[in-house]
Specification:
mainly alpha, two-stranded parallel sheet, DNA_glycosylase, DNA-3-methyladenine glycosylase activity, Adenine_glyco, metal-binding, Endonuclease III, domain 1
């Protein structure tokens, strides 16, 4: 039976992109571990395609201790050297060095706000921003909110969190719903507020 569902343009080129689009992209994420994973993966994407990151996602999880920030915060030069030998991941020295810095900054934010989710969802007042784009050409690469998020993350010591990366993180974590109007998966991002708000 042929799949008649309509999707955002970027999700029609490969099965792995389609599966990610259909089940994860734009779905609100309130779990700290998942948000940390997305933040790391978006940073790894910098200068590359999201498809490359998706194809290596399992290898990243294995190499990065299941994206556990408590463990990653203790990564040292020896661990960075080990990761640089791992052909299954993106071997960029600056990105790998940023792992422990981002994990420590993440844990500090969590300690201050109770959860990282509470911190990051505050930038969108606790509910997803639902956009109404007709075509992929209309979808921005950054917004004033992602610029503010980027600025604050950098101030807290995060690396590889420029406004474009921060916006991609917002899209992936469902803080913003950029599914096109014709996309059959557009409704998966609800207006339910952040839990407890």
């Amino acid at each position: 039976m042929r799949d008649e569902l309509r999707r955002c343009d970027w999700a029609t080129h490969s099965q792995i992109e389609q599966d990610y689009h259909d089940s994860q992209w734009g779905v609100p994420v309130f779990d700290d571990q998942e948000l940390f994973q997305l933040l790391i993966l978006e940073g790894m994407q910098a200068g590359l395609s999201w498809l490359t990151v998706l194809q290596k996602r399992e290898a990243f999880s294995s190499a990065f201790d299941g994206f556990n920030p408590e463990i990653i915060s203790f990564y040292d030069e020896a661990k960075e050297h080990e990761l640089m030998q791992n052909s299954g991941i993106i071997r960029n020295r600056l990105k790998i060095r940023a792992l422990s810095l981002n994990a420590r900054a993440f844990l500090e934010v969590r300690e201050q706000y109770g959860t990282f989710a509470a911190y990051v969802w505050n930038f969108v007042d606790g509910a997803p921003i639902i956009n109404a784009w007709q075509s992929s050409q209309q979808v921005p690469t950054q917004t004033e909110i992602s610029q503010n998020l980027s600025k604050d993350l950098k101030k807290r010591g995060f690396k590889f969190v420029g406004p474009t990366i921060s916006y991609a993180f917002m899209q992936a974590g469902g803080l913003v719903n950029d599914h096109l109007l014709h996309c059959d998966f557009r409704s998966q991002s609800s207006r339910l507020p952040f839990p407890g708000s």
